[in-house]
Every structure is written in structure tokens, then in C-alpha cells.
Amino acid sequence: EFVGSRAAEAFILSALPTPVETAQWIGFAQERLGGAVAFKDLELAFSELDQHLQMRSYASGYAVSVADAALWGALRASAIFQRNLKIAGQQVLGPALTRWYAHISAQPFVERLVAAAANAQTAAKPSGAKVTTDQGSFDLGLEGVEDGKVVTRFPPEPSGYLHIGHAKAALLNEYFARSHNGKLIVRFDDTNPNKEKAEFEESITEDLRLLGIHGDVVTHTSDHFQTIYEYALKMINKGLAYADDTPHETMKEERMNGIASQRRDQSVEENLQRFELMRQGTEEGLTWCLRAKMSVDNPNKAMRDPVIFRCNLTPHHRTGTLWKIYPTYDFCCPIVDSIEGVTHALRSMEYRDRNPQYEWFFPALELRPVAIKDFSRMNFVYTLLSKRKLQWFVDSGIVGGWDDPRFPTVRGIRRRGMTIDALRQYVLMQGASQKNMLLEWDKIWALNKKIIDPVAPRHTALLKKELVPVTVVGGPDVPFTKDQPRHKKNPELGTKQTVFSSLVFVDQADAASFAHNEEVTLMDWGNAIVQDIVRTGDVVTALTVQLHLEGDVKATKKKITWLGQDPNVHPVEALLVDYDYLITKKKIEENDSIEDILTPVSEFADTAIVDANVGLLAKGAIIQLERRGYYIVDKEAAQSELGLVTLINIPDGKAASTASKHKEDPNATKIKSGKGNSWDKPSAKAKAVHPDAALSLPEPKDTCNMYESKHMYGDVAVGKPKDITSMYETHKYY
Predict the structure, then answer these.
(1) What's the pLDDT at 119?
(2) 387 given a catalytic annotation
(3) Which of 73, 322, 383, 514 has the greatest number of beta carbons closer than 10 A?
(4) Whether 377 is catalytic
């Protein structure tokens, strides 16, 4: 009786989602689940969606709809969702969300779409082409995993700043701990007082906090020095360790050739006596070290009686002069991992040859064993991750410090404009693969662009060199300012002041491309027709244009940035800085000499004028300069020695922004780097090159106003410039 009746029709219609509901869920999919969403915001979105689906089979209504398709598509494209789905499932994502996702995935239309997408991707590849990817898996094959009992650790050495490779190790250890409801230990491996400083420990702590990594426990290897010392005594008494005074080079040669040390068969009493001399730091004790008696000729040379304790009289930054002997990383790591409760030690593959050594200590010392797994390092082209080599650049004065924008340190790439969200997402996209890859920088910068583009205010910059004054016929008789959106697609960013006047400025490159009677578009104003072009040789010195506001902006080929002038609103002077890689070789080999791979010019700078709104920005603000790219405020005007706002270019992932600039732009203003002879012999320490040095200016006489010029912009009429002079000697700007 019910089927076919009007009541049935009304029921069916009531079960369908309304257009408003559908639009809301499509918006949720695009805005809350898209690729540019911050990691924590994604987790919140997953939780909200799980809550919504608790008592529902579909996102809206009682049948599958466009809303379900939009949400499913966004989740299918989310690398983070897919990783969580594969590794943890409903434990992280929630039972309702995982149930709904599986149900929609089984729908016939979804199966058809997935098959069509796969076919289209295959068809787009050349026949026989090898499919490559820089994304890895999270499947490490961990054994003995129990929910709530997993304990991982991240053990940085406080002898430098965290770099992007350390970030991967830290994030992966945190990921596995959190995905199994476990615990993360942050342990400072402070066993080498020659290199370690409290400064480095503080910076590592801050960088981890910025990465969103919070250890459930923070410890130091130095907390366990007494315990480690006692384990060394235990090894000596068991005949598993011996003191050795073999000269370093001889010891190295014997290990390479599988020759036993003459001290290997000393008695336990002799070894204890000499170890005590080491502990006291006596003159004789300083000539000895303690070695584990593992093997003389094992094919794995890491197993050939490694050193486990050595003398060092340098005061420790935490324990002072209490200890004169310190354990090596290879000895203390398995001990501390075991006694601190670590269940899974995850570390990069550079330690793979030493894994058998790590495992040897557990039965030797009667310790609880710890499962060890390794993952590939995150290596990038044209990039050095070795602390020793990075230290060489710092000591040689080629870079300004560990936060130099050319450095792969967390602080360096942050200063270059990398967001923490982009870094986290990229590392988690890589997974824990054991496949070694040399990664390009394009994908991580492209991901960063997706994050900053929706929130980067738009501003204008013109190169100061050969700036061209333009008379605008039909322009306002009196300059005026108008509030315009800082970002046309994001009104939440507020407004900026734009100056409209009958005398404006444009870039020399734009002016040189104009033809008589050509119609161009002045961005955010309207069209104008070029009436007159004044040249001196090949350089345009003045333009006259006629406003044609009724013209179609879509019909013009050239959209031009410009700056007006108003006596009350002065544009701001800025330094636009860009960088090249520090080395010219994509992959460095151990025997490469500095002279062969050092980029001779790796810092570039141009002076520019930017709209007055830029002068109000704080250090660290990220903006887009129209038609130039994304920039981060590195210095406010008051922080610069020359009173210039310093803006650093942020790569956007496109080929031009991530390719090496070496030998590409010989006419650009350059800041030259120094050179050294070898990584082990840094050149004489030089004063760090300041970005403002690109201007090649004399030192100012006194600290006063920014220049000796008595007028700026609209204060006086701007005529044809005289000869180009140095910035401090000029009395008129343009």
C-alpha cells in the first residue's frame, strides 16, 4: 500500500540532503581535509567527522550523495589519513569514520572512479617508463608491539642545531609512540664534552617544541654515567673488555687488517688498574682507552673490538669535572635504552653496520634486549647534513651562523620561509621507508606554498635600479589612499592602503617592454594606454600613459605592478635577498674537495621600493610580492644596519626556484663566499657576510636618518635622475 503512494515520495525526498547541507560538506572536505591543512587541524577534523558519523551511514541523508563523494575523495587524497588508516585504523581515526570510509569505498561508483583514475595514470606514462616516488611506507615490521606499552626515544647530541634529517628521526619516533598510545623519551646524548654546549641543548628543545614534539620524559645520558661506569667494570670482570694504549693510527690499521692488539689478553687485574688510572685522569691514564672484546676479524669491521670508554679532561656542561672518562655512543646507547624502558629503537640506516654491535651488549651485560629498526635518511640534492661539514661553513665565515637560510637546519629553513606544518607533513609523507633516496627540494617547497598562499598578504615591490616615473593622464589631481584587501580570496586578512596619484613608478623591465599605443593593465586600478616613451639609449627614463578605465582588463597581455606617491604615505626601502645552494654538486662524495664543489656566489640581493604597508610588518611575517613570489620578513627596518626592510625569497617548488643558480645570472648583484682547503682544515675565520653588503656602499658617516637625502617621494616633484651614484651620496631618488 505504501510503495508508489505520495507518502512514499515525500519520505524519499525528505531523506535526500538539501543543497545547503551538501555545500557545507563539500566546503568541509575542501577546507578542513585539503592538502594544505595543518597536521593538528587534520586530527581535529577526523575527530569531528567520526563524531558526526557515530549514528549515521552517510554524511547527510539516508543515501549516498555528493557530500559522501567529496569527503571520501579528500580522505583518499590525504597521505596522513591513508597512513593512519593502514597503521592504526580506528584506534586513531575512530570506529565510525573507518566504518563509513570502508562502506563508501565499496560503492560501485567509487570502484569505477578508482579504476578510471588508475587507467588514466597508466596511459599518461610512456610505455616501459619506471614509476618513481619519493614517498615511503610506515611499515617497519615492528615486532612485539603492544598497545599502550611502546616506548621510543629520540637521542640528539647537543653539539649542534637540529637539521631536517634529525626532524625526520624525531617525528617518526613520535609518530610510532603516539600511534600505539605509547611514550616518547627525548634523551640528550651528552657524552662528548668537547663539542657539547648548553646553548645547543636549549636550541634543540626549542626546535622540537616548534615541531610539535613533546617528550613524555626528557633525560640525559649523563644522568646514567655512574651506572654505565659500573657496567664497564662488569665487562672487565667478565673478561669482555680490556684497556689498550695502542697508538691511534696503529689501532686503526690493526682493526682494518684483523690483527689482535697486544693488550687483548691482559689479566682482569691489569685492566682494572689501568681503567682506574683512566677514571682518575692521570698522565698515564690519558694514554689508555677501554675496548670491548667482541672480535678481531669479524667481516663487519664495526664488531672488531670497538672503543667503549676514553679519557677527556674537558669539563662537562652538566657534571663539571666529576668525570675524566666518558662512554662512547655505541656503548651507552644500548645500556640506557634498556634501563629507561625503550621497547623499540628506531634510527637511520647509517647505523645499520653497528646494529649487531648494539645487540651484542644485551647478553654480554645481562640487559633486557631492545628491538632495533632502521629507516632511510632524508638526503636532499645540493645539501650537506654532516655536522662537521656544516661547522666548516660556520667557522670559515661563509655563512652567518647555524640559522643561515642556506643551511638545512630547522632554524635555517624556517628563516628561509619554511613552515613547521609543511615540514611535519612532508616528513610524515616520506614514511619510514628503508629505501635510500636523494630527494629534490621541489615537493617540500610546493607543499609549503600550499600552506602559505591562502594566508600570505599581497604587496608590491619595484626594483630601485633604473626605476621609471610614469605620468598618468587622467589620474587624480590630488593623491589619495584607498583601503584594498590584503588578499582578495581571504578577507580575514584585512585591508592595506594603496596610493593613487598622477605620478607613479614602474619597473624598468616592464617599461622597456611597452610599445606606443599599447594598452596595459595597472593592477588593482585599471587599463591605461601608453602615449609616450622617453629613452636614453636602451634605458627607459620616463613614460606617459592615458587612463582607460573602461578597458577590458582581461583583454590585455601585460598586468603591471606600480606604486603611487603621496607626501603623507611614503613607500619603504627594502632589500630583496635570494640564495643558491652552498655547493654545486647534487650528491657529495667523501673525497670531494671544497674548491671543486663550493658555490662561488650563493647570496644575491637587490634594492627595491615596496608599498608602505610592508614597513608595518613584523619579523617572520610571510607575504607575496605580486609577480615576484613569496617572501619572509627577515629584518625590520629598525633591525637593519642600513635601515632597510630585509625580505628573503621563499622557493615555491617550481623548477626555477629550486634549480641551482650557479653560472646562471652573471650580471646580478652578488655577495661572494669565501673558500677553504679541506673539511678538516677550515679557512681562517672570516667575518660573516651581511646581506646588506650586496649594495657595496661606504660606511655611513654617522647614525642618523636613513640617507642624507633631504626629500623622499612626494615631498618634491620627481624629475629625470642625474647620474647614478651610490645610495648615500644621492640627494634625489628617482
Answers:
(1) 63
(2) yes
(3) 383
(4) yes
